[in-house]
Amino acid sequence: MCEKENKKRYYITTAIAYASGKPHIGNTYEIIMADAIARYKRMRGYDVFFQTGTDEHGKKVEEKAKEAKMNPQAYVDQQTAVIKEIWDLMNTSYDKFVRTTDSYHKKQVQKIFEKLYDQGDIYKSEYEGWYCTPCESFWTDGQLKDGKCPDCEREVHKAKEESYFFRMSKYADQLIEHIEKHPEFIQPESRKNEMINNFLKPGLQDLCVSRTSFKWGVPVTFDEKHVIYVWIDALSNYITGLGFDCGGNHGDLYNKYWPADLHLIGKDIVRFHTIYWPILLLALNIPLPKQVFGHPWMLFGEEKISKSRGNVMYADDLVKFFGVDAIRYFVLNEMPFAQDGSITWQLVIERINSDLANVYGNLVNRTVSMVNKYFGGTLNDKREYEALDEELKQFALEIVRRVDLKMDGLRVADALEAIFELLRRCNKYIDETLPWTLAKDETKTDRLNTVLYNLLEGIRIATVLIEPFMPETAKNVFEQINTEQKSYDSVLSWGNYEISNKVTEKPAALFARIDAETKLEEVQQYLEAKVPKKMRFKDEVSIDDFAKLDIRIGKVSECKKHPKADKLLVLKVKCGTDERQIVSGIAEKYSPEQLVGKKVAFIANLAPITLRGQESKGMILTAEDEDGTLETITVSEVEDGAVVK
Ligand SMILES: [Zn+2]
Fold first, then answer.
1. Looking at CB atoms within 10 Å, which of 50, 224, 239, 363 has the fewest?
2. CA 144–ligand 1 middle distance (angstroms)
3. How close is the Cα of 265 to the center of ligand 1, in Å?
4. What are the DSSP calls for 32-95, one per residue?
């Protein structure tokens, strides 16, 4: 067997995103974290399969599609495109994007349901609970809020619905045993205890796995008024995406990658993934995933900016101002292992300045500039060592090990922090060695050469490690220092930077320092412009005020251009037995011929004025929108002389 086939496999998934709206940055965190893990594993030599996708069925989608006057499939096609666009914008390297409306998925979900029914794990019964008619939802006693619907706070009544149920309790003991035997199965550990003590030990109720209250879902083949509910439909994506076949004729990907190494999910859906999903797999006699990690949430912090829009932040807006890698860095760095993180525009700017510009950008820029200035861009192999060098080397190699340990434990923020410790250590090494002082002393040339080599090597190692987190930045740095030594193996020992390589002559700043005040103002203006403008009306008037105006319909009998003003037309307007001249500023929109014969609304009792030598008795009414499109108010049936009120 060749070495390639012996590679260790790693199958990582995100939860599938619900296709009912644009994901904000909090909902985008998960795919970025999964991407960093997937890229890291690939770098470590694993054969990785990375799957994400969308959950596209259910009542909410059905309703939203109806609101948008679209059929549900067209609606989810549109929503999924929006989600995919953001995943792609964030440079995530997923191998498969699964959709629960994929025909293969739907077919397998139906087969799974049939199989479970045939083997007696699913049975038909009645669901009884508190029903809210407007919400079309059942609630349990515990869910009611002061005896009323927790969603709309209306009255509820006892009702029954025919449903299929899954015998969860049958597999509970088997699952408890599995969880206890595999302490790594549920992460973080606090969630494991919660699942066992709060849900499994008190006894599981049978799970309602079908619905009749909406149609947009996968129908139960043998009872078509039922659609299969989210538990079986959505969770199965992790196997159907790989080509799982309920009849046993699995696709290659399934044979190769299942069981999953990691389901990365939000902490709010840990129960579904560590109780419902494994029990479903146990019933199907399929091996369980190795690990489920419920990550904390990225919350929106308090800030003054953009109140009108709320403080919801979107990846595309953030990227517009700061670039993809800065945002990847921010969310990965800011989210601790088990506690929620938070994001504000201000915080993003602070982090870019303090970490990316000052630490990483500054180190690369100073080093490359000095290599150019003192050695014309290429170092040589003459060395003069000091104890400090060994310390830097050992520190770097220690960081390589630490990053690996942290990534194994899914402590992504800690891994990233460790890499920045190395970058900070390199900056400190510059302060300790003072290269610009060495440069003044001719006898110190070899020492200077050694110092700069160590800096390039430190940058190289940190950049290899940082690539899974910030791929484009790493590419940029590799180009600036001009190295081909980008593999993980190349950072397991010190000294692999190619001595004879020439660094770039014109180093560009990796991350520019941002002036917070100016940038926040720019952001504010941009966000305000995205909010639909509030309609503003003039001050209130009384009906008597309005009644003072005599608005009539008049028929344009003659019309010509004003002899002295391009913008004005001079109209003869017939109004019953009256005929008068009105000057109107509509020459840019209408030619005189277009108006003759039209019946237009005008103010008949406006005090007469003279406009560039022509008398005007009244005013033609027009409407003008925001784009500057202008029209006269015209009628067709009503005769001239008619009153407008
Ligand atoms: Zn309700």
1. 224
2. 10
3. 28
4. HHHHHHHHHHHHTT-EEEEEEEEE--SHHHHHHHHHTTS-HHHHHHHHHHHHHHHHHHTT---S
Confidence at residue 460, expressed as pLDDT on a 0 to 100 scale: 98
Residue 204 Cα to ligand 1 midpoint, Å, equals: 26
What predicted TM-score, i.e. pTM, was given to this entire model?
0.82
Distance from Cα 603 to the centre of ligand 1, integer Å = 52
**Is there a contact between 203 and 194 (Cβ–Cβ < 8 Å)?**
no
Confidence (pLDDT) at 167:
95
- What is the 149 CA–ligand 1 centroid distance (Å)? 5
Task: Output the CA 109–ligand 1 centroid distance in Å.
Answer: 30
Q: Which tokens in the block code for residue 527?
A: 């966000």
Distance between Cα 140 and ligand 1 center (Å): 13
CA 150 to ligand 1 center in whole angstroms: 7
Residue 132 alpha carbon to ligand 1 centre in Å: 5
d(CA 369, CA 375): 10
8 A C-beta contact, residue 37 and residue 262: yes
Q: Write out the E strands in 363-442.
A: none
CA of 152 to the centre of ligand 1 (A): 4
Q: Which residues contact 485 (CB under 8 A, 6 or more apart)?
A: 460, 464, 496, 497, 498
Q: Distance between CA 21 and CA 503 in Å, rounded? A: 46
Amino acid 178: pLDDT: 97
Superfamily holding 317-516: Isoleucyl-tRNA Synthetase; Domain 1 (1.10.730.10)
pLDDT of 248: 94
Q: How close is the Cα of 448 to the center of ligand 1, in Å?
A: 74
Residue 188, preceding peptide bond in cis (omega within 30° of 0): yes
Whole-angstrom distance, CA of residue 257 vs CA of residue 244: 11
For ligand 1, the distance from its centroid to the CA atom of residue 160, given in whole angstroms, is 16
Looking at residue 629, its pLDDT comes to: 87
pLDDT score for 138? 79
> Tell me: domain 543-644, CATH 3.30.365.10, correct?
no
Tell me, yes or no, if the two domains 317-516 and 543-644 fold the same way.
no
Query: With contact defined as beta carbons under 8 Å apart, do 214 and 303 qualify?
Result: no
Residue 443 Cα to ligand 1 midpoint, Å, equals 83
Q: What is the pLDDT at residue 291?
A: 98
Q: 464 C-alpha to center of ligand 1: Å?
A: 54
| Cα-to-centroid distance, 203 and ligand 1 (Å) | 29
Locate the domains of the chain by residue range. Answer: 317-516, 543-644
Distance 138 CA to ligand 1 centre (A): 9
CA of 161 to the centre of ligand 1 (A): 17
**CA 293 to centroid of ligand 1, rounded, Å:** 33
Q: Which pLDDT belongs to residue 6? A: 67
In angstroms, how far is the first alpha carbon of the chain from the final one? 90
> 133 φ, ψ to 5°?
-65, -50
pLDDT tens per residue across span 231-256: 999 999 999 999 999 999 999 999 99
> What CA–CA distance (Å, rounded) separates 632 from 48?
66
- Whether residue 266 contacts residue 294, with contact meaning beta carbons closer than 8 Å, is answered with yes
Q: Which stretches of the chain score pLDDT less than 70?
A: 1-6, 303-310, 533
Instruction: Provide the token pair at 298.
Output: 């990225």
Distance (Å) of CA 228 to CA 23, 111, 168, 231, 458:
25, 11, 16, 8, 55
Measure 59 CA to ligand 1 centroid, in angstroms. Answer: 14
How far away, in angstroms, is 321 Cα from ligand 1 center? 41
Q: What is the pLDDT of residue 41?
A: 98
